[in-house]
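Backbones bend. To wit:
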Amino acid sequence: QSQIVESGGGLVQPGGSLTLSCTSSGFTLDRGSIGWFHQAPGKEREIIACISPTGDVTHIWPDSVKGRASISRDNGKNTIWLHMNFLKSEDTGIYYCAKSAGCATDDPLDFRRWGQGTRVTVSS
């Protein structure tokens, strides 16, 4: 079965850090731009970061995470990571990754092949 799989979520204390992983089965991610999204409870899905197929272009969107988030990839490992530090309660939610033709867009509708997400809870 072809699917994208996110992992690395869990309970994190405020001020802590985490690294989320995005990989796939049944196909590879190396030809696509990959975006990480955050969906807070009761809110719409919002893009956090995007990385180009070769990793030479990255884009971090929300002002709320700039300086706290970074995205990277290793195509040999078929994995894209989202690293976040200085976590806040508002970072709580489900994190998804998805594939797109490019990182020029922040619209979730331009992304395909969504994973099931990984849940992150920031709480003491």
Summary: The chain is about 0% helix and 45% strand. The chain has a mean pLDDT of 95. The two ends are 38 Å apart (CA to CA).
